Amino acid sequence: MENEIEKIKVELPDPELVSLADKIVQVIEEGKQALAVSINETIKTTYWRIGQHIVEFEQQGNARAKYGTALLSNLAKLLRARVGRGYSHPNLNNMRKFYQMYPNFQTSDKSASIFQTSEKLTWSHICELVTIDDELEREFYEKECISEGWTVDELHRQKESGLFMRLAVSKDKQGVLMLARKGQQVQAPEDVVKSTYTLEFLGIEEKKRYREKDLEDRLIDNMQMFLLELGKGFTFVKRQYGLTINNVHYHIDLVFYHRILRCFVLIDMKRGAVKHKDIGQMNMYLGYFAKEENVEGDNPPIGIIMSHYKDELMVEYATYGMDSNLFVSKYELFLPNKEELRKMVHDILVKK
């Protein structure tokens, strides 16, 4: 017995030693983080300077005449022989664009874009951003990347889905400019609801027959992408949220909580067109949550009916006099036509 007690004493770590180990682990983690930040900033600065040298070389009239469009290809071959991989024609072109689009990247001017000092944007983020020619659009994605901490894949998806343009088409000129300069601001229920949701990540073909349950199942399986499409502030609560009124059982397809607006968000999915009875039912759900589920500090709930088709006139009549927190939106199973959206945004901006 005494030998077993001694063995236990030896195996139990000394609390003071554990405390010392905790401090050392914290220092190591902080060092790793600082090293990662340092490497990221060094990479961006190095590539920006390479882009600067390329642009300055191109600006020499004789160099442009001599090499023309073959400059980057020839340079890539030379660099590959001398320093190895990583300096391909496409990558050199990204460095060139980086310098051209962000000429003040190394400036000490405090009025410079927060992009220039952000630790959240890697070279891979920059490679995505420099493919956006429109300055307003690019500035929007910069702000959202930094504020929302988007991964490169998330940034790519939001670009491909035309997020900026989808948000911009519902605004006036000043609203579009504000969207670009400050990103998406969430202050009221209408700020978190889109007129159309793009659900291409579900992989459902437009002509394929599917049930509402199939749609809901796919959304649950792709919840991370769905949250990205919903926008900032959404946290998932439950699917098929049950409630009973006068011994009648109902189920709300999806329930979320919005941490910025401090309210529940109820979503019902409709495979076809939304009907007036669907609107009435959602209004009942909102009343139930306001009376039975809200606690002190919660704001009135938001209801969103997502349907594949939307009869604007019917919705206008069916929602007449109802809670302004009830919205009917469309969903698409394919990516929108970005050129058409871009033209619509352009028309808004050129209006006097």
Which features does this protein show?
6-stranded mixed beta sheet, Trna Endonuclease, Chain: A, domain 1, single chain, 2 domains
Mind explaining what this structure looks like?
Helix content is 54%, strand content 15%. With 352 residues, the protein is α/β, with parallel strands linked by helices. The chain has 2 domains: 15-104 and 112-163, no CATH class; 200-332, Trna Endonuclease, Chain: A, domain 1, CATH 3.40.1350.10. A 6-stranded mixed β-sheet has the order 1-6-5-4-3-2, with helices on both faces. The chain is globular.
Kindly summarize this structure in a few lines.
This protein is α/β, with parallel strands linked by helices and 352 residues long. It folds into two domains: 15-104 and 112-163, no CATH class; 200-332, 3-Layer(aba) Sandwich (Trna Endonuclease, Chain: A, domain 1), CATH 3.40.1350. The chain has helices spanning 2-11, 15-58, 61-67, 71-83, 89-101, 123-129, 135-148, 152-160, 163-168, 173-182, 212-221, 223-230, 276-293, 312-318, 338-350, and strands at 196-198, 234-245, 248-258, 263-273, 302-309, 326-332.
Task: Set down the secondary structure blueprint.
Layout: H1 2-11, H2 15-58, H3 61-67, H4 71-83, H5 89-101, H6 123-129, H7 135-148, H8 152-160, H9 163-168, H10 173-182, E1 196-198, H11 212-221, H12 223-230, E2 234-245, E3 248-258, E4 263-273, H13 276-293, E5 302-309, H14 312-318, E6 326-332, H15 338-350
Parallel strand pairs: 1-6, 4-5, 5-6
Antiparallel strand pairs: 2-3, 3-4
